[in-house]
């Protein structure tokens, strides 16, 4: 009876559906192409998976608090452009330029949060406007041209952020380590700390949270700042890895990141989120992108698969939620 209860509890968790889907994906793609699970392909998949993953972790916390951030894709591109413009013009060292870019992203996040909490404007509209402002600024400053990054070759700071090393034949990227540390920290904050309780209360019932002494406005502003900062870090890491800082980088990333979070089981209306589920959602979508290319499906069909997965996972989450509430 105890074993049955444990199984029922496990199946009812929001992470169960994403876990099953990820395992099925791996099995299907590996059955079509045995190179899918080869060490070089796993390394290649991880190299670009974790960059969006960094944004998705912060987005999970923000969505748990009941808000969205559509400006993360534009911040992803803008921060890299800003850092490399400052560095290539010899205005400041790379490390200082990095701090300036992060500070600019924190300011963007603060403005987003202030508009949402103080002026009571929906985050969808605020961050959509910020998306256009930030993207437009990046395009205006660069005249639409990518910035050079290769001057930093061999730079210790760049290697710490986005370098790589080999473990046998497996190439490990530093960004994977940063992602793992960020995931552990985010999971701990959400599930083990008072701040995590504030985040969930702010999204679940803001009025009740205020009555219990939670500063909902400050909590949400901090989360908007964290979302922008993680988007900035991800964009900078990507620019170092690809040797390109394009003002158009990150276009469409905001929707893909939200899809990762939703597929992972975070509730759209706020109040409940799961970092473990988000990590699974991250790998579901990026493994899908890699897998369909390896088995010969045109890459342009990727959005079809994303849409189908979102619809399927929403139906599954709804079914599991009903079963859980009915006590089955």
Automatic annotation (TrEMBL):
It holds the Pfam family BPD_transp_2. InterPro entries: ABC_transp_permease (IPR001851). Its EC number is 3.6.3.17. This is Monosaccharide-transporting ATPase. The keyword Lyase does not apply. The keyword Hydrolase applies. Its main location: membrane. The lineage of its organism: Bacteria, Pseudomonadati, Pseudomonadota, Alphaproteobacteria, Hyphomicrobiales. Keywords: Cell membrane, Hydrolase, Membrane, Transmembrane, Transmembrane helix. It is a multi-pass membrane protein. One of its GO terms (molecular function) is hydrolase activity. One of its GO terms (cellular component) is plasma membrane. It is an enzyme of class 3 (hydrolase). It is found in: Cell membrane. It comes from the Bacteria. The chain crosses the membrane at residues 16-33, 45-64, 94-115, 121-142, 173-190, 221-240, 260-288, 300-320.
